[in-house]
What does this fold into?
Amino acid sequence: MEQKIEIRKAEPRDLDTVYGFICHLEETRFPFEPFEEIYLENIENRDYAYLVAANGNDDAIGFLSCHGQKLLHHAGLVYEIQELYVARNLRGTGIGKALLASLEEKLNKTRFEGLEVSANAKRNDAKRFYVKMGFEPTHIKLVKIPVLK
It folds into this structure.
């Protein structure tokens, strides 16, 4: 039996579930209060897309966040997927593809110069997924973590 999936805008009621998704994705436990503040602010930002995949009971089973920025080196608006998470037991069922398709449908109604994504070097399945979805590995992302004193 095929599961009904709805893609909708993330809402404040999704906070706890999204928090769990992102902690699992990043293999850490973030302080909840700053996470909550950022989440609630970001879901209202018109240049960001926060989407939830929900099952027939309206339970969140996947999440995608994407931020738009006006970049000089593109002379326009570029979107970058920040997080994409699908519940572990539902991976490979088309939920990630549905989230991405919904994002692209939303972005295609705007004027933008590109859609980008970065994936952690150890996430080989994620990289394969994005290539399968039409992304090209054209850049290398370098990261410097600040040293806290």
